[in-house]
Amino acid sequence: MSTRRNKSTDADKQVAKLRSELEDLKAQTKAADAADVASHNVHSHEFDQLTPTEQSAASLGVSPTAWKPIAFLNNAHYSQLIKVILSSPNK
């Protein structure tokens, strides 16, 4: 005789919890972004002096010192290369 599984498994419950936490974080981020935009910390005279490329980067709203997009990728790639070099036979 077979038994039927309950439709909501523990994994489904965890996924639902994670999704709700992500939605909460998105809402908090939007609120924080709205507060930054509403503040008068914008220096338009400095922004106008930037090149178009710099203006595009500045409009992302990310501090140049806080945003390192590929450092983790470079570090992982370097570690992988070292492992390959160490595991390959000497020729």
Protein model, in words:
The protein is mainly α. It has a domain at 12-37. Helices cover 64% and strands 0% of the residues.
Primary descriptors:
mainly alpha; about 90 residues
What is the secondary structure topology, with strand pairs?
Elements: H1 10-38, H2 44-48, H3 52-58, H4 71-87
What kind of sheet is the major sheet?
Answer: none
Mean pLDDT: 78
Can you tell me the residue ranges where pLDDT is under 50 for at least 5 consecutive residues?
Answer: none
Label the structural class.
Answer: mainly alpha
C-alpha-based Rg, rounded: 24 Å
Q: What is the succession of H and E elements?
A: HHHH
Strand content: under 5%
According to DSSP, the number of beta strands is 0
**Shape field:** flat
Q: What is the helix tally?
A: 4
Gap between N and C termini? 62 Å
Helix content: 55-70%
Quick recap of the structure?
With 91 residues, the protein is mainly alpha-helical. It is built from 4 helices and no strands.
